[in-house]
């Protein structure tokens, strides 16, 4: 049973959480199609991982962009986790955050997640709506169900 006294005492907190939830929902609706469109079609099958473009930058620019990319990635992962219980596209947001972040075992994890038919269908549906070619599915021995 909900304690009405607690709700009345914490109205500010509840309104802040509702506002944050709405902000994350709208932010995910706006950013996910843009971010998903930026993934190369062969991202999950190309061993080069399209990193040569960034490595050709000045070292300060390279490090700065890499830090910014990781910061945005981890913010998306955290927002996606929150969206699992709040309104928003939680799983896709987590995947986009993982794609942007750098960590050991990232490539293997991405390929396993993207091998899930539902996840890949969701990614490709959004890409198709934006007029982009579908992602080539990864070939792994034991995909996620």
What can you see in these coordinates?
It contains seven helices and no strands. The chain has a domain at 33-129. The chain has helices at 4-9, 11-38, 52-55, 59-83, 90-100, 106-114, 117-129. Helices cover 66% and strands 0% of the residues. Helix 4 (59-83) packs antiparallel against helix 5 (90-100). The chain is globular and about 60 Å long. It is an all-alpha fold and 145 residues long.
Question: What layout of secondary structure does this protein have?
Answer:
Layout lengths: L3 H6 L1 H28 L13 H4 L3 H25 L6 H11 L5 H9 L2 H13 L16
Distinctive features:
mainly alpha, single chain
Spatial gap, N to C terminus:
37 Å
The arrangement of helices and strands along the chain is: HHHHHHH
Structural class: mainly alpha
Q: In which range does the helix fraction lie?
A: 55-70%
Strand content: under 5%
Shape: globular
Rounded mean pLDDT is 81
Oligomer: single chain
Point out poorly predicted stretches. none
């Amino acid at each position: 049973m909900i304690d009405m006294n607690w709700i009345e005492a914490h109205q500010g907190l509840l309104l802040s959480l509702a506002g944050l939830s709405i902000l994350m929902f709208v932010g995910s609706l706006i950013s996910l199609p843009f971010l998903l469109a930026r993934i190369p079609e062969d991202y999950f099958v190309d061993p080069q991982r399209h990193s040569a473009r960034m490595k050709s930058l000045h070292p300060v620019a390279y490090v700065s962009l890499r830090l910014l990319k990781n910061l945005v990635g981890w913010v998306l992962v955290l927002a996606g986790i929150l969206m699992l219980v709040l309104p928003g596209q939680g799983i896709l947001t987590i995947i986009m955050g993982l794609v942007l972040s750098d960590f050991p075992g990232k490539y293997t994890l991405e390929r396993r997640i993207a091998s899930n038919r539902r996840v890949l269908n969701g990614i490709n549906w959004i890409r198709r709506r934006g007029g982009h070619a579908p992602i080539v599915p990864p070939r792994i021995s034991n995909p996620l169900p």
